[in-house]
Design brief:
One of its GO terms (biological process) is cilium movement. By secondary structure, the protein is an alpha+beta fold. Helix content is 23%, strand content 26%.
Length: 589
């Protein structure tokens, strides 16, 4: 079909033109309310949306590159001599000195400088610049500030494969250095490329260790000699004991043989109070405590087997995991075991059975930490499972004070050396707890999240100000406590002594009450036995009862077997008869 004509018009001109006019309102539809529909009404959940007219901001944190420092030493030798004078030749130096002393310029210089030096010397003699003006005055109590702590440094394991910091020891001369033992205690988790080294750190320089200790096996524990700050002793994962002198390099000076060492990892080693300052003793999970003289580590000088039966049987010995030695009690020492038992021992006892004096049983797991209070040595602190407990030597049945069960496992603890009522604990959730038992007993005074990984070791500096914590990821964190947690408070010793005495008396009363209840129960059971005496005389002994029960049992069994044989024989005879009846019928058929 062809298009003959095309007619075009704008779209806005299509249709009829709209004409509007005014008219009164008209009701078209009236819908009355229906109450039944209200039951089906579902109210829409309101939603609030906040609108911010400000421009979006972003915050970023940037760490600058760590400044690496290096320590260098310079040897100064005598110089300033002319080229023709050899300072090592005494005759030439004496001759040159006499020549200079006769020079007029030298004499004039000495006379001018002499008057100036004389004035300075007289001034120093008149005023003592090192005088302590307020030495005799009593310390004014500081304002009560909330307990706090801040991180000073973090000493990280420099190796790629990180290891756990299993042991820490402060340098005895002012605590300027910190020795750390690194090892992997998880069973069969140690890799071949894992380093064996442990390190000594300068607390001012976390970038690089000051010295490297190179043992034959990874160190689990180590300890500075309190009498000689240059020497250390360490316990290895394979049970060997190693001795270092830092002036003689990174290699151990003495190392005990494998045959004479422990058979399990050495979890604790401590220096002993002796005249020579060379005696130490170690504990291991093989159930032995060994004494050593570091001048001759070929064999131990003494040995103790931790057998609860006091018979020296190594097969029944309990594995040791912590040690305690107090210098004021040179003959006594304590050992914490894997089974939660604490041994109190006396080294000077004549026989091995007498060396184990008594035991304290109060933990459900290994006793990871054990330390006497430095101000009250009769009271000691233990840590195991989920609690920390304070004991008195006089109470064997139970501890006198304890913390409530924590959510994470406790791995180490120690007393503050400056405040008798303060102790520190570390847990597997990376938290350091500071407890002040005079302030409150149920909860720690201060809790700090040190790191995300578990904390395994803990040591406090001698002044109580610095605390070092070792973690599972190989970091040793150095924290500084506030003055309130490190300075001795007014009347603190007397208040704590009264608290320990009160709690000890309470436990003694409870122990006596328990003893009375046991005696009453025993007397009641004996009385009931006497009342049933006539009946008991005619009764058989336990052996006779067992024999009679066995005879009755075997007779019943034989009777049952005989009955079954008879039934089987009757059944077989019956089957033969039926078979004979069937065979003739088949033949006739």
């Amino acid at each position: 079909m062809e298009i003959v004509h095309v007619y075009t018009k704008l779209r806005g001109e299509f249709g009829r033109q709209c004409l509007f006019s005014d008219r009164p309102a008209e009701l078209l539809v009236d819908v009355p309310p229906d109450p039944s529909l209200g039951l089906q009404f579902i109210q829409k959940t309101p939603r609030d949306q906040a609108v911010q007219a400000c421009r979006d901001m972003s915050e970023h944190q940037v760490n600058t590159e760590r400044f690496e420092s290096d320590s260098c030493g310079i040897n100064h030798v005598e110089g300033g001599w002319p080229k023709d004078v050899d300072p090592d030749e005494m005759e030439q130096t004496i001759r040159f000195r006499k020549k200079v002393e006769k020079d007029e310029g030298y004499m004039n210089s000495i006379l001018q400088l002499g008057s100036i030096m004389e004035h300075c010397i007289r001034q120093n003699n008149a005023v003592d610049i090192y005088q302590l003006y307020f030495e005799d005055e009593e310390e004014v109590e500081e304002s009560l500030e909330p307990p706090s702590a801040k991180t000073i440094n973090v000493f990280r394991d420099p190796n790629e494969v990180k290891r756990t910091v299993t042991g820490l020891s402060w340098h005895p001369d002012g605590g300027r250095k910190l020795a750390a033992a690194y090892s992997c205690l998880e069973f069969q988790r140690a890799t071949r490329d894992m380093s064996l080294d442990s390190y000594i750190w300068d607390i001012e320089n976390p970038n690089r260790p000051e010295m490297t200790l190179k043992p034959a096996s990874p160190l689990v524990c180590l300890d500075y000699n309190p009498k000689d700050p240059h020497t250390l002793v360490g316990g290895s994962y394979n049970g060997q004991i190693a001795y270092w002198d830092t002036r003689r390099g990174s290699q151990p000076v003495e190392l005990c043989s494998v045959e004479q060492s422990h058979r399990d990892p050495v979890y604790k080693i401590i220096w002993l109070q002796s005249k020579t300052g060379t005696d130490a003793f170690s504990a291991s999970t093989d159930g032995q405590v060994l004494w050593w003289d570091v001048r001759k580590l070929s064999e131990p000088t003494e040995r103790l087997v931790l057998d609860p039966g006091r018979e020296g049987n190594l097969d029944r010995a309990l594995g040791a995991i912590s040690l305690e030695f107090e210098a004021t009690m040179p003959t006594k020492f304590m050992v914490g075991t894997e089974q939660g038992v604490v041994f109190s021992c006396n080294r000077k006892a004549k026989t091995p059975s007498e060396k184990i004096v008594c035991t304290y049983d109060g933990h459900h797991g290994p006793v990871y930490a054990l330390q006497r209070n430095p101000f009250f040595p009769k009271n000691f602190l233990t840590v195991g499972d989920w609690t920390a407990r304070i004991w008195s030597e006089d109470i064997k049945e139970s501890s006198i004070m304890w913390t409530k069960y924590q959510m994470a496992y406790l791995m180490d603890a120690c007393w503050s050396p400056s405040r008798p009522s303060v102790f520190f604990t570390v847990k597997t959730d990376g938290v350091l707890d500071v407890w002040d038992i005079l302030f409150k007993q149920n909860d720690p005074t201060l809790s700090l999240k040190v790191c995300d990984k578990a904390l395994y070791s803990l040591r406090v500096q001698d002044n109580g100000r610095l605390v070092a914590c070792g973690s599972q990821q190989g970091g040793a964190t150095l924290l500084e406590m506030c003055s309130g947690l490190s300075t001795l408070q007014k009347n603190e010793k007397s208040l704590l002594a009264a608290m320990f005495e009160r709690e000890t008396k309470r436990e003694k009363i409870l122990e006596a009450r328990q003893r009375e209840i046991r005696l009453k129960e025993r007397s009641r059971s004996e009385q009931s036995r006497e009342d049933d005496g006539g009946r008991e005389d005619g009764e058989e002994s336990p052996d006779q009862l067992i024999d009679r029960a066995e005879k009755d049992f075997y007779s019943v069994v034989e009777t049952e077997l005989r009955r079954r044989r008879d039934d089987m024989s009757k059944h077989s005879v019956k089957e033969k008869r039926e078979k004979k009846r069937i065979e003739p019928q088949d033949r006739t058929g």
